Amino acid sequence: MLDIKFIRENKDIVAAAIKNKKRDINLDILFHLHDKKKTLSQKIDEVNRQRNEAAKKRDVIAGSDLKKEVEKIQSESTAVDKEFLALMMKIPNIHSPDTPVGEDENQNKVIRTWGEKPVFSFAPKDHLELGTNLGIIDTETAAKITGSRFSYIKGDLAMLQFALIQHCLKKLTNAGELEKIAKAANVEIPMTPFIPVLPPVFVKPAVQNRMARFLTPEEHYMFPDDDLMLVGSAEHTLGPIHMDSIIEEKNLPIRYVGYSSAFRREAGSHGKDIKGIIRQHQFDKLEMETFCLPENSMQEQDFLVAIQESILQDLGLPYQVVMVCTGDMGFPDYRQIDIETWMPGQNKYRETHSADLTASFQSRRLNTRVRRNDGKIEPVHMNDATAIALGRIHVAILENFQEADGSIRIPKVLVPYIGKDKIE
RNA sequence: GGAGGCGUCGCAUAGUGGUCUAGUGCGCACGCUUGGAAAGCGUGUAAUCCGCAAGGAUUCGAGAGUUCGAAUCUCUCCGCCUCCGCCA
Description:
single chain; about 425 residues; alpha+beta; Helix Hairpins; 2 domains; RNA-binding
């Protein structure tokens, strides 16, 4: 959610963002509702003042009349508030000046590439064929037991997953490692290490709503009997950690790295990526969620991207970094940077990482604020970014590091965790 | 799942219908004192909204209700604690 004052003072910027993010909202209606809301609340304040006075004087008759009056205005005011808020929530975040304006993913801008795409002396296979042959991916049994878009990850691939998690956690909790990454990326912000978290995978729908992620309800697994839903990402329970609280400036930045399964119904993606484990209803992910000072949040995002790149470089996976354009970026995002990793079996780069800077957009709804050293209070800035998404990285590793005989080379950094250098 | 207790300004606690404009302690900030510090003393210390300001309104877990008036009474919900049961 944006600040209504900001919207009033920057109508052009907000209107442009609405248009660039392909939405249609009339800001004049919003302003009109806001005026009405203000007038009504001033009226209520005044009547309440009189009411308090009457109560103090124990004036039963006047008090009784004023009570009826305030009830009448109150109901009108509640209706206006509701309408105002509903419209406010439809307004997307503005986008950063360096975000490319565009219609869809075709206008996303590649800003860097790293690594050499592998050249095979044989016809490379896709991850499903490789994984099925090696007995480490089993989608057929999963289809019988649970349904389509689920899988059993077994044997060395399961080991590989834990190795990846361990490798990343080690990196993210080590201040020295982080400093190296920041220095290489020219980022100058405090290097507070990440706090590892195992968050809940259920979230109250009302809280998820305050994350301002407009993942429609159809995309979530809902449990109405318990008023709960499964998270689509650890972000959904990491982001609200400081809901309704004020963080002292000296305690920022706060960085979390959460490990959890993510659950997505993938409604509306029928037929897309149906083969293999690229698009699953359930997958595991290490997710970074950070809270920082407003003036540091762009650098914070650059830092998170640098971490993502460093992880992919450790693994030796070729990738490209992409500035996501306005038409393709998330509703609450100020700037979105994706990393796409080369997948030979698909013969293209596929999204494996996303870094979302939401600035004050989420924190305003979550009511997560910072008390500056001078005592002023303002919303903190929030970033969230994938550290590693396990399903898709499995795909990348299997497809990039396959040998002619169908075996898979294990990335050097992971060998110590698994105790061998090959899946065969 | 059963029984009981409890949710108050960062933390701890007082407050059982009007004197609560929510007290006190700790913490924190500033000042005095000091060569400097600690201690001591003094002052200040929740947020949100409206307003240029003066000031006003709202919030005592959440919501609804009773009342001229609610932290305080009633109802519903949520959370926490203790004991019992079940259980990884």
